[in-house]
Amino acid sequence: IGYVQHASHVGPAAIADWAETRGFTLSGCHLYRGERPPEPGAADALVVLGGPMGVHDEAAHPWLLAEKALLRRWIDAGKPVLGTCLGAQLIAQVLGAEVGPNRQPEIGWWPIRLQPGTPLAALLPVELEAFHWHRDTFGLPPGALPLATSAACANQGFVWGGRVLGLQPHLEMDMPTARAIIAHGGHTASAAPYVQSAA
Q1: If you average pLDDT over residues 136-156, what whole number do you get?
Q2: 48 pairs with which residues across the strands?
Q3: Catalytic entry in 67, 106, 134, 172
Q4: Quick check: is 170 catalytic?
Q5: Cα 110–Cα 121–Cα 93 angle in degrees, nearest 5
Q6: Which candidate in 6, 67, 85, 153 is catalytic?
Q7: What percent of the chain has pLDDT over 70?
């Protein structure tokens, strides 16, 4: 499994634990350091992590253009792709959906509600607490199946083509990563109805 990391403090967290316990090899690419991401022939699946930038920030992060082209190649190759937060937004945009500001930021532990009859609903409780850190959101790509919603954000996940999964919340979050995100991005957590304190 290859993964794409957009910032030093937003790593694979529990995805790494999941991969290790199941015997998968996990290989990371740090795009912000100029590393080359894995092509579809180099891994069986791709994970696209979150990050503090937005999908439209190509001027500040020119590697975003190359990443979007890479995602298109992975999707066209028929390989499984998982995106969390920024990763989900990038996938949604590549698949033709609009990505832009959510009506309000969603930061902290907030419940999401799974859509009945969807793949996640068969695996997880109907409602669960999830970690969020986002100001943007995605529309649903054409042909995508919506997976979940929350009080602050209508689209919390989608599945496309049975093998491409986008998740707005950080279901992979663990305590060290949460602390690192707070330490690096606490200044962005201004007071709002769906923004929790760092504590």
Answers
A1: 97
A2: 4, 83
A3: 172
A4: yes
A5: 70
A6: 85
A7: 97
